[in-house]
Amino acid sequence: METTAWTQLYSVMHAQQDRRPFAAATLRRIAAFARPHRSRIALFVLFGVVTALLAVATPVLAGGVVDAIVTGGDEDTVVRLALLIALIALVEAGLGILGRRLSARLGEGLILDLRTAVFDHVQRMPVAFFTRTRTGALVSRLNNDVIGAQRAFSNTLSGVVSNVVTLVLTLAVMLTLSWQVTVLALVLLPVFVVPARRMGGRMARMQREAATLNAAMGTRMTERFSAPGATLVKLFGRPEEESAEFADRARRVADIGVRTATAQSAFMTALTLVSALALALVYGLGGWFALRGSMEPGAVVALALLLTRLYAPLTALAGARVEVMSALVSFERVFEVLDLKPLIEERPDAREVPEGPVAVEFEDVRFGYPAADKVSLASLEEVATLDTRGGAEVLHGVTFRAEPGQTVALVGSSGAGKSTIAQLLPRLYDVDSGAVRVGGVDVREVTQTSLRATLGMVTQDGHLFHDTVRANLLLARPDAPDEDLWDALRRARLDDLVRDLPDGLDTVVGERGYRLSGGERQRMTIARLLLARQRVVILDEATAHLDNTSEAAVQEALTEALAGRTAIVIAHRLSTVRAADLILVLEKGRVVERGTHEELLAAEGRYAELYRTQFEQQRGGVTDGAEEEGAQAAGVLA
Taking the complete model, does pTM exceed 0.70, yes or no? Predict the structure, then answer.
């Protein structure tokens, strides 16, 4: 039989057989995604029907040529039939190219729509979604599942239509030529299909095993090839063990590959053998009829050629449900992500943050982090069931106000709620009760765009994308000219460093900015903040993990960034917040003390205890309290 027919047949037998029922809601949503492409889908189906008609016509014409030769017909008839066969071949070739282009446009258009919908939706999800979800599982939805879904249109839809048309026409023509041969050919169908499906199931299991092994090997490579992973392996001196373990995984992948290739070869050989038996039946029985004069020789040839158009469509249609179910599963996995409701929604009547100096106010704020079932999926976390914990209140009636241009510092033990407050201000989460106001307006009532333009935040990790210095800076203001970029770098004390880089602004900083030091990464994020020109600045442990030299450079840059802005500063090192206009001491989600540095020391409360503890630790770690003096010299608020 034809190679294309066997390839199609193999793919059907090889497919994973999912027995899930049709979901009417899923079909309706698929129809909604397909609606913008309905004209292309109709044309695509039409191409499949015409191609099926032409495929059946060729064997009939070939039989006519044989009859003309055997019966001594005139040369013109043979030439006309040959030219008609050639014309059909040309038309088929042209339709094949046009159909492939149409299929590509249809499939890629659907991929674009699905990927864009998922990407835009994921961008609206809260931070808790990203802290719980495995990135690889989420990316798989945008790649593998989206592509699996589009196959329903670019492959399955056309295949079902063309196979039905081909099957009906082939059976009609074969019954016309010889109903006896046709019936006997159909009797052989179980001998043809049953072993093929059993072998297909075996190969499907091996392919799933291979996919699992490949995924595990890929995950291991991704973890070990990242900068932190590679560093960890080198620090613990395990390159040989890692190499041996990877080789073992790769060896198992190779073994399953050999077994799969052997099974595929046996599968194709068995199918070829069955097809040869079917052809032998057609030639033997048909030839016997022809010799007895009850069948034309050309009919025997036509039947043999039509046989190739009979078994493949029958088997493909028998497995069409598998393909449809596989596509539905892919669609459902995509829709599963789209059905996750974002916790942060912008109101239709949202307004802009007022112009001018901005005050920040927290009024009786209560908040608990959302439970997993509100922000995540078990399949994205790759767990059997979601963690049921969550929802417990972590902030209890927090109230304070930062006037325009003032600096409010948040201090306290780890887990006291400082970073939670910082995340509520830019509305990474919404409060459960109370209100967070910027410029006198509740953050839930302003547009996300104006809120982001008003608030800037520097976190302790100083995250950068694997891109150029220019691209990382332009995240803050995409239309900024080079002069503004260099001005921001100068004010962040980074201009000399960037000028010395191989490509200046166009130098790639590496994954997460690992080609820069920790202090340089922090100053890069400060330069981005300066470029954005936001009126409120949030510093969340911006110097937590830096050495004294790097901290001094970052603090100098922060002095520039905070000038004239309302600031919320979170710091463990109390020496860096002594000059804040207001210091809030948090413990277990409550403000237990508030005041200036001097007032809190005089109160002899929790702040004084923390300050003395840190001062003693510094004296123990650095001779004669040199660290405190260095912090005072470089203090951003001093």
Answer: no
